[in-house]
Specification:
Layout: H1 8-20, H2 26-34, H3 45-68, H4 89-100, H5 119-132, H6 138-142, H7 145-148, H8 151-164, H9 177-181, H10 184-198, H11 204-227, H12 235-245, H13 263-273, H14 275-291, H15 300-309, H16 314-329
Helix pairs in contact: 1-2, 1-3, 1-4, 3-10, 5-8, 8-10, 8-11, 10-12, 11-13, 11-14, 14-15, 14-16
Length: about 325
């Protein structure tokens, strides 16, 4: 069997795509993002086929690995008919842009797409930002308006995007929800990391911007899943809150603002820092409705499955949300 032959530039682009979907080494991802690498002007038939295979298999596997494997309220991801994984030339544009520019630089050329991205491509973009988290390329990626306007990217990266600046909500559609289902574990990790991240923000305005972005994105998301009877997709908020409460107890672990900053700004920032815990309060209301669903009512089985699934947070966790919010509202 002969090996596929591609140019060096094409190999770099395919390697970056493999790193994004989790089948390439992290060291290569860092190199390709932080150092300017000449991208291919266009792809030949061999490299096109390799990229298509990388994207289809890689994103598909990521959806199974990052949440689709869990057997929760509605079964595993593959228990349902899934929409096709569709990629366009915008994925190539994203990869070419990322290769060409040293993303650690403070100012780089702006990323531009042509037309809307598909949900599959939004997953790929969200994975790219996730792989770049903690690197020198993170701020540049989080600041690109084309990426900041993608619903799935916003849902996963609301906090770091809020740190960069004001975020305008791009609501998810029903077409996005199967992809959310495949990302639940990763979303839980991202929102848990965001709570840890808040404790490092000493400037009230920055913390306030992060909290406002989280609150707006979460509220829009909850409205969508409620409308489409997909409340089980809120599981990642439960996961994030339960993980945080496993080692922390109150607002002192969540907020550490500069004591020399103005009192009014600190008060506003503390209020905004409670975004996740206000989400948990809304989920507590849903939990009470699920518990009150009678055996003869429509949706009883789903309601009971949700009650069981959310027990890992349980009454103590729901009560902790109210206590944390009370502490945040009381300036010390």
């Amino acid at each position: 069997m002969s090996l596929a032959r591609v140019t060096h530039a094409e190999a770099n682009l395919i390697t970056l795509a493999r790193c994004v979907v989790g089948s390439g080494p992290g060291s290569e991802l860092t190199r390709l993002l932080l150092v300017s690498v000449a991208p291919p002007a266009k792809l030949g038939p061999t490299s096109t086929a390799l990229l298509e295979e990388t994207l289809a298999r890689g994103v598909g596997f990521a959806l199974l690995k990052e949440g689709g494997w869990t057997n929760e309220v509605d079964g595993r991801l593959w228990s349902h008919d899934l929409p096709p994984l569709t990629f366009t030339a915008n994925t190539i544009r994203l990869l070419q842009w990322a290769l060409k520019l040293p993303l650690a630089e403070p100012e780089v050329a702006t990323l531009h797409f042509q037309g809307a991205l598909t949900p599959s491509e939004e997953v790929f973009a969200a994975l790219l930002l996730e792989r770049a988290r903690g690197t020198a390329a993170e701020a540049t990626l989080m600041g690109q308006s084309e990426l900041r306007s993608l619903p799935l990217v916003q849902l996963m990266h609301a906090a770091p995007m809020g740190r960069v600046g004001k975020l305008t909500v791009a609501p998810l559609t029903k077409a996005h929800l199967p992809f959310v289902r495949g990302l639940l574990d990763l979303l839980g990790d991202a929102w848990f990391s965001a709570e840890l991240f808040k404790a490092q923000l000493a400037q009230p305005k920055v913390l306030g911007s992060v909290g406002r972005a989280q609150a707006a994105i979460a509220a829009s998301f909850l409205d969508v899943i409620d409308q489409h009877s997909q409340r089980h997709l809120a599981r990642f908020f439960i996961d994030a809150a339960a993980a945080w409460l496993s080692t922390r107890t109150g607002a002192a672990d969540l907020v550490s603002l500069d004591p020399e900053s103005p009192l009014r700004e600190r008060g506003e920032a503390r209020q905004q820092a409670g975004a996740l815990w206000r989400v948990i309060q809304r989920l507590e209301q849903w939990d009470q409705l699920h518990r009150s669903t009678r055996f003869i009512d429509d949706g009883y089985d789903v309601a009971q499955a949700l009650v069981k699934d959310w027990e890992r947070l349980g009454p103590n966790g729901f009560a902790a949300a109210g206590r944390i919010l009370g502490e945040l509202e009381a300036l010390t």
